[in-house]
Amino acid sequence: MAYANVNGTTLHYEDEGTGPALLFLHGWGTSGRVWGAQLPEFVPDHRVVTVDWRGCGRSDRPAAGNDIDGVVADVVELIGTLGLDRPVVVGSSIGAVFAVELAVRHPELIAGAVSVDGSAHWPLLDPAAVDLVDDLRTNRAGTLAGWVPGWFGPDASPLLADWTIRQILDSGVFVDDQFHQALAHDPRPALPGLRVPVHYIHGELSHTPVAISRECADLTPGGELRVIAGSGHMPHQEKPVAFNEALRGLLAAVRAGVPA
Fold first, then answer.
1. CA 36, CA 160: separation in Å to the nearest integer?
2. CB 159 within 8 A of CB 148
């Protein structure tokens, strides 16, 4: 196991392969393990780094820094600590928010980003998001049991939802702070000014509407959207063959600096 001390917090990461760098960022409450179906595909020709960001997986669970600013700052520090040469950052769900924010704030550090089912400005449009933090605080296990299975499409094994719930229950409760900032987050004004390529992948059946990524792609210079048929919110886990094919195409587009 590999660990890095970043901004006073110990983060667990895995670093395999050689070649152009890919940095994968998981979604809320889970871990770098969610990218297990991508490692065999990309490690043979890339340097692939997965990280459990603060509060999650095998990393520390500090009470502070559990917001967009804190996690983005950690990732910036991690890129420097590991000597990653302008990686393409691939983020899922709120991890996609972190990836896009890296492209907005630190274009000099990355070659580009791929947003996977990014939540973007969706919490602004969903009234239920306001009550989520209170529900998690008063009945964490029950709230997750009722919510997480809906992240997945009808073809996904129920074991995926069970495993996801277990990961979230094992994560630190302070990651819930991310929802407060997400309720006010809106990347759309910054997208037209992006200086590195950003592309989008979205599950056709995701509870986060495809229209969210489509609007962001339309605002992003050269932005492309790939929709994964039959998938819910976690296309990298639900439909890994289709996802990996889509990601390969978008990685080529990032490196070329043109739409796929």
1. 12
2. no
pLDDT in tens, 19-65: 999 999 999 999 999 999 999 999 999 999 999 999 999 999 999 99
CA dihedral 166, 167, 172, 176 (to 10 degrees): -90
The pLDDT tens digits of the residues spanning 131-184 come to 888 899 999 999 999 999 999 999 999 999 999 999 999 999 999 998 888 778
